[in-house]
Amino acid sequence: xxxxxxxxxxxxxxxxxxxxxxxxxxxxxxxxxxxxxxxxxxxxxxxxxxxxxxxxxxxxxxxxxxxxxxxxxxxxxxxxxxxxxxxxxxxxxxxxxxxxxxxxxxxxxxxxxxxxxxxxxxxxxxxxxxxxxxxxxxxxxxxxxxxxxxxxxxxxxxxxxxxxxxx
Amino acid sequence: xxxxxxxxxxxxxxxxxxxxxxxxxxxxxxxxxxxxxxxxxxxxxxxxxxxxxxxxxxxxxxxxxxxxxxxxxxxxxxxxxxxxxxxxxxxxxxxxxxxxxxxxxxxxxxxxxxxxxxxxxxxxxxxxxxxxxxxxxxxxxxxxxxxxxxxxxxxxxxxxxxxxxxxxxxxxxxxxxxxxxxxxxxxxxxxxxxxxxxxxxxxxxxxxx
Lengths: 167, 209
Ligand SMILES: [Cu+2]
Hints:
The complex is a heterodimer. Chain A is globular. Chain A has one helix and ten strands, in the order αββββββββββ. In chain A, strand 1 and strand 2 (51-60) form a beta hairpin. Chain A has one helix spanning 2-25; strands at 35-43, 51-60, 66-72, 76-87, 90-95, 99-101, 106-109, 115-121, 130-137, 142-150. Chain B has six helices and nine strands, in the order αβββααβαβαββββα. Chain B has helices spanning 3-22, 84-97, 101-105, 121-129, 142-152, 195-205, and strands at residues 54-57, 60-63, 71-77, 107-113, 135-138, 156-158, 170-173, 176-179, 185-189. In chain B, a hairpin with a 5-residue loop joins strand 8 and strand 9 (185-189). Chain B is globular, with a radius of gyration of 17 Å. The interface between A and B is large, with 36 and 43 residues. Strand 5 of chain A pairs antiparallel with strand 7 of chain B, so a sheet runs across the interface. Bound molecules: copper (II) ion (CU). Copper (II) ion (CU) is lined by residues 53, 82, 93, 115, 117 of chain A. Copper (II) ion is lined by residues 53, 82, 93, 115, 117 of chain A.
């Protein structure tokens, strides 16, 4: 009896581990599920400025690197992945084919560096609004990010609310 | 993208990178023309001389010498810039709000566009006005801008890529140049200087009452 119980237990354990191996190997866990996003925001654009940058922090909770290969949004005609490099004070902005979030690591999209560019906004992007951007990952999975719009003139969001701050 | 274009962009970038390495640390002055299609040159001499210039704003021509008696902060950029210029001007705007009235009266901020192709004086002033820091938007002909850039050690170059169409970016140095009440170029502040550091610099360099 004891042997049978042990065998049963072993089988149960085996099937559990088999299940978990299967589920992590197949498409049940998409890359979108393995990315956590914090502090997303887009920047208010001055009148006539035809491009805005948007930023966020991404965390990859999986054991493999994950690439964002494109982004889409209804707020602007063109959405591109960009980076800035600072060569001793000369700022160079370039479109890039992907943004990689390292395995069990983070990627920081922030002013002066990586950003998602919203080019030719369809309506002015104004503080107080929320804009949605959808990220597409290498496996085709997608994640929608809702980001508040912040003013350029606030200390990076320290002053929320009205852009004309009373003194 | 066609490989020839990639090459010219890369070459230009290398040139700018090499040039930029030189000025902030020693006495080499660098300027690149606005167009990336071939004539970028390295020009070396002593540290940037600065000096007077005349550019066009929405209300007509303005010279640096018009602001004698005031501390002048000059920033070179372009209004299509999605991040760098707004970050710097935003910080300046926050700093400006922290100044006393006397300090505001003795300060002039100039935003000089190095992208005259798209930045008309009207558009520039609309953009500059957004920052609520009495910023005056100025621009000029490509030749005038190239000449001023050379004297101030400003580097800029259009990123020429057919895929960009009218949405091209302009590489540019992102320093804020500090000019004293006599029109002399004193120093440059780095990109994204914090509002507090801008205030400290204004207090340090403004003429004492
Ligand atoms: Cu960009």
